[in-house]
Design a protein that fits this description.
The protein has 77 residues and is mainly α. The chain has one domain (24-77). The protein contains four helices and no strands. The chain has helices at residues 2-6, 11-21, 29-38, 55-59. The chain is globular, with a radius of gyration of 15 Å. The protein starts with a helix and ends in an 18-residue tail after the last helix.
């Protein structure tokens, strides 16, 4: 939040960054183990902002479901 508050970017730019970056995907523990081998906290080398935010899942062969699930409470990231 501090980086956003201190940024010299416009509100529109910040909103578009958050729209891309603030995405949560629920995966199983087995899928998490698969991702953890290569891309626990990094994107594929050829990935660029604006490309699919699901690239690491796609690379690991993990299907992404597109329906939205209502949720209450905290998420562990």
């Amino acid at each position: 939040m501090k980086h956003i508050r201190d940024s010299d970017r416009s509100r529109e730019t910040i909103a578009s960054i958050l729209e891309i970056a603030d995405c949560v995907t629920l995966i199983t523990k087995d899928e998490d183990k698969t991702i953890s081998l290569l891309h626990r906290s990094s994107m594929p080398v050829d990935w660029a902002v604006g490309a699919s935010q699901f690239a690491r899942y796609e690379l690991c062969g993990i299907p992404i479901r597109t329906e939205k699930i209502p949720m209450v409470g905290r998420l562990v990231r």
